[in-house]
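Hi U.,

Before I forget, here's the chain from the pilot set. I'm dumping it here mostly so it's searchable later in email.
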Amino acid sequence: MREAEKTRIAKSPIEDKAVLCEAYDYTDKVSFSRGMRVELDNCVMLFISGTASVTEKGKCAHPGDITAQSRRTFHNITGLLESEGADWHDVVRTTCYLTDFRNYDAFNKVRNAFYVEQELAPLPASTCIEARLCWPELLVEIEAIAMIPRDRARLASGT
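Structure:
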């Protein structure tokens, strides 16, 4: 089958430049989208790429401070979700990356407080992994997957 004849699932990038710069705005170009919106029959899946304590100017916010970086990371993901009309109640899974598991208790304290503030129940499925991140000053990065009804309004598109 030729490429033009293949049926594809509708997808589009997710972005929120108010809280987080886009990958193509980095000095050294990187090849990824901040997230991807995948449209299925009656639902939409939002795949949020690994997100860290990065500013709208593409700089690390709060180098060396796991608590502040964790808060900024949740803030950035919140902005990406909101740009698609979603929130943390729509998140079904997270994958959390820490550069040092000695920071786990501090990270988990921020995550627990954030989830209580969001009044999440049930909590998202989650995995936490110790890993080296793309910038040495980053201490935490989180990926998220959310599901929303297909007719949920996208704030980014103004609908």
